[in-house]
Amino acid sequence: MFQSTSNSHMRDTFGFLKALAKNNNREWFTANKDSYQASLEEVKRFSSRLAEQMKRHDNIDDSRTKVFRIYRDTRFAKDKTPYKNGWSGSFGRATKALRGGYYFHLEPGNSYLAGGFFGPSPQDLVHIRKHLSQDASAFRAIIDDTSFKQVFGDMLGEQVKSAPKGFQKDDPNIDLLRYKQFYFNHNLDDQELMGHEPEVKVSKIFQAIRPYFDVMSEILTTDLNGISLI
């Protein structure tokens, strides 16, 4: 059975994940089920501690807090390894007025945080595009802000190659209208997560995306005349 010599629980989790990456098969996993279970419980505790930290600066909906399964769905995947090489989880914001979601991924050498709108509904996507086409100044002021970019870099997400249906190619904001997703990543060093109270550091990073969530929440909860839809 895989065992870590460290007293740090997150170090144990990263040790488990490193071993799993080298032995991603059911036989090894079964033989190390205790290490898997200990790692799962630690990630759940981390998620719970992180949620409590985030409640200091946001309204987190406990019913939408998740730690995702480590088992992979290989039915339609080229990669047939049965397990993911990392843990991940997410947090949702409470009430219809607060939009956007938080996501964390813990994997040796590939840990990161993400925030934004990864899968907006077709209705929300059109609504966002209409608002940005009309006036994207507040949106750009956030995503182009130097301090914001130092934490989250450039906006990520799939894009259409040309103008989306219903919009013109020469729209001044076509660079934004092409996006189908609107999210940001922040990469984490392993040592940041294996240090003292990593949930405090992660919560502060997540807090830095609030201005973006605020402007997107305003977009998604008002019509083009600025009248509330909720």
Primary descriptors:
230 residues; alpha+beta; 5 strands; five-stranded antiparallel sheet
Task: Summarize the structure in words.
- This protein has 230 residues and is an alpha+beta fold.
- It has helices spanning 9-22, 26-31, 33-54, 122-134, 137-143, 146-152, 174-177, 190-193, 198-207, 210-220; strands spanning 60-67, 87-93, 101-106, 111-117, 182-188.
- Strands 1-2-3-4-5 form a five-stranded antiparallel β-sheet.
- The longest helix has 22 residues, at 33-54.
- The radius of gyration is 20 Å and the shape is globular.
- The relative contact order is 0.14.
Order of helices and strands: HHHEEEEHHHHEHHH
Taking the alpha carbons of the first and last residues, their distance comes to 54 Å
- The average pLDDT is 94
* Shape assignment: globular
Radius of gyration over alpha carbons? 20 Å
Number of helices: 10
Widest sheet, order of strands: 1-2-3-4-5
Quick take:
The protein has 230 residues and is an alpha+beta fold. The chain has helices at 9-22, 26-31, 33-54, 122-134, 137-143, 146-152, 174-177, 190-193, 198-207, 210-220, and strands at residues 60-67, 87-93, 101-106, 111-117, 182-188.
